[in-house]
């Protein structure tokens, strides 16, 4: 790097930056190489086709030799064996691969040593002192004009004392819903429920406060609904926007940051004084800095508050249990609280401090209403204030104490200009809507909806792992899915106990690799993790037992998108004795599948509510096997599986049931036919006897025609009454029958139109005229238009 620096240049050259920032330029080189390799023919038919051309074959050989030469030089530079190109000494491809792996291990080990030295850790000299004995080393990158080099300083700090150890109240990581921490309600229009006004604890003193309150309320069955409700729900629902807030303001220019008074608040007296100042204002800006890597629920580390005249930074780690004092100013409806992207801030304030916000204005919602190019605070600072914010500290470790000056300046920037941006966006919202307050009112309404948000604590259920598993978009068998479920439960349980994030305990990509590989030994679990998390190294034996438990599951492929089991896996046809032969995992699967249809009709909120209530009923439910493991249909064709045997039994049972049903149907049909025959035989004999008696009693010389079968059917209609033997003989009236043969002779057609005697063709023509809307009907052949109009309805 010294050779690349020129004395004439005050800034480093490209070569110098490449030498000083190897990661930045190395990553670009790796990405370009990866993209180029993706364009090469893939192994298989395509590669074999291109390989048939001599030019392609020569090109591949030359490039391969060049790559092997570069690799051998790198290995030689690091003192490794570099006989990759020697065909005599290394004849096999596997030996070459092993040589490359060994060289990578040596290089990565040296890189780790150098990184530890950059962090201030020297393995060869004194060991690292325990947490709390060494001040953290925090430095940020900056340009040194004198030496014309970049100095590197790290944003994270090792050996930082965990702030959770100093908290007066223990953090509640229990698997229970979140209960609001508020016990005093300033600016209340509706008083706080009685269950929240007192801080009396039940007799369960060895459990977290929220869990103890929940147990107490469940025992007494009092105020259960009020316990989880938003404390300021009534005030926010009845909050009306003042007219002055809907009028066009005059933007008040901000002061330069160097001329603005700054105060760092870390004592109770200063916090009380700040609250008195805020209560006298009409608006102030608020922002938070959060840390989530070394805590299960997360920690709010800083609160920035800016007025028109001053900037404040509150050490919320030091004043965590006293922050509720600010509720007097935060819930005052006459004071506007300006946030940017307050969705997470509102939840963090409730979770850590019991703070609630009334009369909120979110500049992020205003930016969306104005359809700006971007909606981040960085863009608003550039757009309205021409200020470039340094986002290098956005993911910094805000637990560091004392804070470096660079991080203090970044924290002040988030709120120092926010009140001026608030004025500017209000003006643009009114101008955008032609001075009408409708658009501005919609921003106020959306901001109020954000204030109504409630913090929801992550609740573990037996199906929690499925949401994460679906995101991986990988097909797993029963063993792999069981390992994933067990590792997920172990990670969640340990993270709650140690108050660490799940990413710190076991990152998701490492959990996926362990689930897919299913190592047979503890060393295999360590090999799947790079770098190895500390808690994984401590409890590797427990993880090994979980993996062994998953390997004992029957190896069946799990279908990705199926929910129900069909065919022989229908549990309605299997007995409990057959289920006893299966493993507990498959028994649970088959029994729980029947409830899927009922669950489909429920919404997502109802499903989550049901899972939470079930977790209350059985606290050990999180260790039960899952519901959504599905058995492959192809398992019934595997003679070595129990599913194959049970499927045969189900088939035989289904065939026997079908045969029995067919026989029952045949018997029922035969009985019905016999009953019908008996009924018809009795009816015909009665009819024939009556008719014979009628002929005897009638006149001798009068003859009647023999009725046909159709006449017999028409005579059997219910409206026709049969003649009794005592009645006198009456001839059959054929004019009432349905047969046209006995309709009699037709009279001649008259010239007058008769609608009762129109033929079928004429009816079709009339219907077509009705559809087309033609009422004249004069085009009908052989029909009188005059007669038709006379008889046609007026409508």
| Poorly predicted spans | 1-11, 125-154, 199-205, 561-568, 570-585, 619-629, 689-705, 713-728, 739-750, 774-791
The number of strands is 8
Class of secondary structure makeup: mainly alpha
In percent, how helical is the residue content?
40-55%
Tell me the strand percentage band. 5-15%
> How far is the first residue's CA from the last residue's CA?
101 Å
Shape call:
extended
The gyration radius over C-alpha positions equals: 43 Å
Mean pLDDT: 75
Summarize the biggest pleated sheet. Answer: 6 strands, mixed
Helix tally equals: 32
Sequence of strands across the biggest β-sheet: 3-6-5-4-7-8
Family: Belongs to the exosome component 10/RRP6 family.
Pfam family, one: PMC2NT
GO cellular component, one term: cytoplasm
GO biological process, one term: exonucleolytic trimming to generate mature 3'-end of 5.8S rRNA from tricistronic rRNA transcript (SSU-rRNA, 5.8S rRNA, LSU-rRNA)
């Amino acid at each position: 790097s010294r050779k690349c620096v020129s004395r004439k240049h005050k800034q480093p050259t490209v070569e110098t930056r490449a030498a000083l920032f190897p990661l930045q330029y190395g990553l670009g080189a790796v990405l370009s190489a990866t993209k180029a390799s993706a364009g090469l023919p893939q192994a298989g038919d395509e590669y074999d086709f291109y390989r048939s051309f001599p030019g392609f074959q020569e090109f591949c050989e030359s490039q391969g030799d060049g790559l092997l030469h570069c690799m051998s030089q790198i290995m030689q530079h690091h003192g490794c064996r570099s006989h990759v190109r020697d065909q005599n000494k290394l004849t096999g491809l596997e030996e070459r691969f092993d040589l490359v792996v060994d060289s990578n291990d040596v290089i990565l080990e040296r890189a780790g040593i150098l990184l530890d030295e950059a962090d201030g850790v020297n393995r060869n000299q004194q060991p690292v002192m325990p947490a709390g004995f060494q001040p953290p080393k925090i430095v940020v990158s900056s340009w040194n004009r004198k030496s014309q080099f970049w100095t590197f300083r790290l944003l994270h700090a090792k050996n930082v004392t965990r702030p959770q150890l100093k908290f007066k109240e223990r953090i509640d990581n229990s698997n229970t819903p979140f209960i609001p921490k508020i016990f005093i309600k300033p600016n209340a229009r509706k008083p706080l429920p009685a269950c929240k006004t007192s801080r009396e604890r039940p007799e369960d003193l060895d459990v977290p406060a929220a869990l103890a309150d929940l147990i107490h309320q469940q025992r007494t069955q009092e105020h259960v609904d009020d316990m989880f409700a938003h404390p300021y729900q009534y005030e926010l629902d009845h909050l009306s926007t003042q007219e002055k807030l809907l009028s066009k303001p005059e933007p008040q220019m901000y002061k330069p940051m160097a001329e603005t008074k700054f105060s760092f608040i870390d004592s109770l007296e200063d916090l009380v004084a700040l609250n008195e100042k805020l209560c006298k204002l009409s608006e102030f800006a608020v922002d938070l800095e959060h840390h989530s890597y070394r805590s299960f629920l997360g920690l709010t580390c800083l609160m920035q508050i800016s007025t028109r005249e001053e900037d404040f930074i509150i050490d919320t780690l030091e004043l965590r249990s006293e922050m509720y004092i600010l509720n007097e100013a935060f819930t005052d409806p006459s004071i506007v609280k300006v946030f940017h992207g307050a969705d997470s801030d509102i939840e963090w304030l409730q979770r850590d401090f019991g703070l609630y916000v009334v009369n909120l204005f979110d500049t992020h919602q205003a930016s969306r209403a104005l359809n700006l190019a971007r909606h981040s605070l960085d863009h608003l600072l550039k757009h309205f204030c021409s200020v470039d914010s340094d986002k290098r500290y956005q993911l910094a470790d805000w637990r560091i104490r004392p804070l470096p000056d660079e991080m203090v300046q970044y924290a002040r920037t988030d709120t120092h200009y926010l009140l001026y941006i608030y004025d500017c966006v209000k003006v643009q919202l009114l101008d955008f809507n032609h001075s009408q307050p409708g658009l501005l009112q919609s921003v106020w309404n959306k901001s109020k909806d954000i204030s109504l948000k409630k913090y929801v604590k992550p609740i573990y259920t037996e199906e929690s792992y499925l949401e994460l598993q679906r995101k991986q978009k990988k097909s797993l068998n029963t063993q792999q899915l069981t390992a994933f479920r067990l590792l997920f439960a172990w990670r969640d349980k340990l993270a709650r106990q140690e108050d660490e994030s799940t990413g710190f305990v076991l990152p998701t990509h490492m959990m996926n690799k362990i689930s897919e590989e299913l190592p047979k030994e503890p060393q295999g679990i360590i090999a799947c993790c790079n770098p190895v998390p500390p808690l994984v190294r401590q409890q590797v034996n427990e993880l090994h037992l979980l993996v062994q438990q998953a390997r004992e599951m029957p190896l069946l492929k799990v279908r990705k998108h199926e929910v129900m089991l069909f065919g022989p896996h229908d549990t309605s046809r299997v007995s409990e004795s057959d289920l006893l032969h299966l493993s507990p995992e498959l028994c649970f699967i088959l029994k729980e599948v029947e409830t899927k249809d009922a669950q489909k009709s429920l919404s997502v909120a109802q499903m989550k509510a049901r899972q939470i209530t079930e977790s209350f009923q059985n606290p050990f439910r999180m260790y039960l096997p899952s519901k959504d493991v599905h058995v492959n249909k192809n398992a019934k064709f595997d003679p070595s599986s129990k599913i194959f045997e049970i499927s045969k039994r189900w088939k035989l049972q289904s065939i026997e049931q079908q045969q029995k049903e067919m026989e029952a149907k045949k018997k029922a049909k035969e009985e019905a036919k016999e009953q019908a025959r008996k009924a018809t035989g009795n009816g015909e004999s009665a009819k024939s006897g009556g008719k014979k008696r009628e002929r005897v009693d009638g006149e001798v010389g009068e003859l009647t025609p023999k009725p046909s079968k159709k006449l017999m059917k028409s005579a059997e209609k219910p409206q026709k009454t049969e003649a009794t033997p005592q009645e006198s003989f009456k001839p059959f009236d054929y004019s009432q029958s349905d047969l046209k043969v006995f309709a009699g002779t037709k009279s001649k057609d008259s010239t007058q139109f008769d609608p009762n005697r129109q033929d079928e063709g004429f009816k079709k023509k009339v219907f077509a005229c009705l559809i087309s809307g033609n009422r004249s009907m004069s085009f009908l052949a052989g029909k009188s238009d005059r007669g038709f109009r006379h008889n046609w309805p007026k409508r």
